[in-house]
Design brief:
- With 123 residues, the protein is mainly β.
- It has one helix at residues 74-83, and strands at residues 16-17, 25-28, 31-32, 49-54, 64-65, 89-92, 100-104, 119-122.
- It contains one helix and eight strands; from the N terminus they run βββββαβββ.
- It has a five-stranded antiparallel beta sheet with strand order 4-8-6-7-5, with helices on one face. A three-stranded antiparallel beta sheet has the order 1-2-3, with no helix packed on it.
- The longest helix is centred in the middle third of the chain and has 10 residues, at 74-83.
- The radius of gyration is 16 Å and the shape is elongated.
Length: 123
């Protein structure tokens, strides 16, 4: 993996919290984190946007929500979504054991309300 002219930095150089999940570091001034999410250097961008829809609000269309599962970070929650062809968004619930919900329209879509502390990110 190439890191540009500055090379790979140490983990301790990353000291700026991610906007969506303050418990995860996303880089530093002039530095960003790079994640490998596919085998054999075939990279895909992990582009999820903060929808600004949060706990207690309903999504604006009927959706199907997967059962919540526990993952280590919002990034891994997004990776789970990328691995599921029907997924178009995730709900990240920091501080919860089962903190990742995949959002799709497969099955029987219905009204979905974001749970306490949750935040919706869409692809």
């Amino acid at each position: 993996m190439a890191y540009g002219r500055s090379g790979q930095r140490t983990e301790t150089d990353c000291n700026v919290a991610c906007q969506g999940d303050g418990s995860v570091m996303c880089g530093a001034y002039g530095v960003n984190s790079v994640y490998r999410i596919n085998e054999y250097d075939d990279f895909s961008e992990l582009l999820f946007h903060d929808s600004r829809v949060s706990a207690g609000n309903e999504l604006t269309r009927n959706v199907t929500a997967s059962p919540a599962v526990g993952v280590a970070s919002v990034i891994l929650c997004g990776v789970h979504c990328l691995e599921s062809p029907s997924c178009f968004g995730v709900v990240w619930i920091p501080g919860s054991v089962n903190n990742c919900v995949l959002i799709s329209c497969v099955g029987k879509p219905g009204v979905y309300t974001i749970p306490a502390r949750g935040k919706y990110y869409h692809a």
